[in-house]
Design a protein that fits this description.
Strand content: 25-35%
Radius of gyration: 21 Å
Distance between the termini: 60 Å
Strand order of the largest sheet: 9-8-10-11-7-12-13
Largest sheet: 7 strands, mixed
Order of helices and strands: HHEEEHEEEHEHEEHEHEHHEE
Structural class: alpha/beta
């Protein structure tokens, strides 16, 4: 490694110190920055709520912006809203996995017109030896069922059925025609999610209201012309952000494949809305939109998988009366 490159790495390591202070701690396995002034740590081990927030005034907007550019320049990664590449994926010194995004595709709140920055650092710790028994695998033992609610039968009461579905991590598709209140209902559902969950939202227009403090809002241009951050890139970025729940906006021909892929990546509570007049046609509409970008889709197999993994909440309207008419 040349002297100039060594010097550049040293400069980067020095600049990273406000962050490495956090991710170098023994019990930390993940570090997330959602906005300036604070940091979220996912702690190693058996914690009731693994994500913990700490204020850090050193993490200013200016510092976060500068560190993203310094990481990209030092590690020779293409990055920058000015070249239409707002996301950055690389390994930091020490092997820690970095994934981030900056610019108009991140919105801190409804009034934020400037755009923001968010990133996640997956801590690499080769010295940590996790034994098989820590995964619950021991000779003569049984495999564990972490979420006991998965085995609870659906109650007859529709409200209780929906609440149970949310608590056990089911995916939900809010279906209805225009002006039936799909997004309004979805915002009400978000209030029922555990306050300790890490939420990532993906929309083309900022409409979702998340009350959980650990959240990131991503915006994707429906036209796809603003930059090189489209729905194909969304899947990679969202998975690097280690969410507990993924909340999407309206399903369209552009994003249907990506949303269905996100629903099959092992996350709980992936929610979205769709235009359809019944629960049955909601599944078919979802499949139809996926086929705009995936002509090889096995429709019968996908329909069966959707029925197994995806619960539809159907909203219909008669004049000024809006009502839930089905919960599959």
């Amino acid at each position: 490694m040349g002297g100039g490159l060594v010097d550049s790495y040293r400069v980067l390591e020095m600049a990273l110190k406000p962050l490495s202070y956090w991710y170098s701690q023994d019990n930390v396995e993940d570090v997330a920055v959602n906005n300036p002034g604070g940091i979220w740590l996912r702690l190693r081990g058996r914690h009731a709520h693994p994500w913990h927030y700490y204020e850090d005034p050193k993490l200013t907007r200016e510092y976060l912006y500068n560190i993203m550019y310094l990481i990209a320049n030092t590690l020779e990664q293409p990055f920058g809203p000015e070249i239409q590449i707002p996301m950055l994926y690389t390994d930091l010194p020490g092997g820690h996995r970095f994934g981030g995004i900056m610019g108009q595709n991140v919105r801190y709140d409804e009034n934020d017109l400037e755009g923001g920055i968010a990133f996640d650092i997956r801590v690499y710790r080769p010295d940590v030896d996790i034994k098989m028994e820590e995964f619950g695998l021991v000779k003569g033992g049984r495999l564990h069922q972490l979420n006991r609610l998965k085995n609870v039968e659906d109650p007859d009461d529709p409200y209780e059925r929906l609440v149970l579905s949310i608590k056990r991590g089911d995916h939900l598709l809010i279906s209805g025609g225009t002006a039936t209140g799909k997004t309004t209902f979805l915002n009400n559902i978000l209030k029922l999610l555990d306050e300790h969950k890490r939420i990532v939202t993906v929309e083309d227009t900022r409409e979702l209201i998340v009350h959980q403090p650990n959240h990131v809002h991503l915006l994707v241009s429906r036209a796809g012309a603003a930059n090189k951050f489209g729905y194909a890139q969304v899947v990679d970025l969202v998975n690097r952000f280690t969410p507990d729940s993924i909340i999407c906006g309206e399903i369209s021909t552009d994003n249907a494949s990506a949303i269905w892929e996100l629903m099959n990546t092992g996350h709980d509570n992936c929610f979205a809305t769709i235009h359809a007049d019944s629960a049955e046609t909601a599944y078919r509409a979802f499949i139809s939109r996926i086929m705009h970008t995936n002509r090889e889709l096995d429709q019968d197999k996908t329909f069966k998988e959707m029925k197994e993994r995806l619960r539809v909440v159907q909203i219909n309207r008669d004049g000024n009366i809006r009502a839930i008419t089905a919960i599959t």
